[in-house]
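Dear colleagues,

As part of the handover before I leave the project, I'm documenting each prediction I ran so the next person doesn't have to rerun anything. This entry is a single chain, and its sequence is reproduced below.
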Amino acid sequence: SGETWNPFKLQYQLRNVRERLAKALVEKGILTTEKQNFLLFDMTTHPVCNASEKQRLLKKLQESVLERWVNEPQRMERRTLALLVLAHASDVLENVFASLADDKYDVAMNRTKDLLDMDPEVEAAKGRGTEMIWAVLAAFNKS
């Protein structure tokens, strides 16, 4: 985006990124904006209003792990790899595979576990434009 990142204001900047992403998804019609009242204060939430887009995304991740699995992150589509890393970091990876049968769920979770257990520094050194994805995984693994 051309913005500079100040490590001392990282929490503020990450909040702005979340707000900008939510705004972009609202403009695309995937999310909506609602005000929720939580005891003493109001909070803005962004529930999903386009469930078909969510289902398409879940199906894409499920197919990439079960049907199009290459067992080499260098050959994976970068967007799919990024989605898997972010789903893991957001602690929603189990939800992605929850609708699968038990045997497919186990296969999917084992494959993603193997992928996420790889050494991010080694994988980033292999290049192919995935260095930032592996850096994000390394950052989440350290926290």
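Helices lie at 10-27, 51-66, 78-89, 93-97, 102-116, 120-125, 131-142. The chain has two domains: 7-45, 51-142.

All the best with the project,
I.
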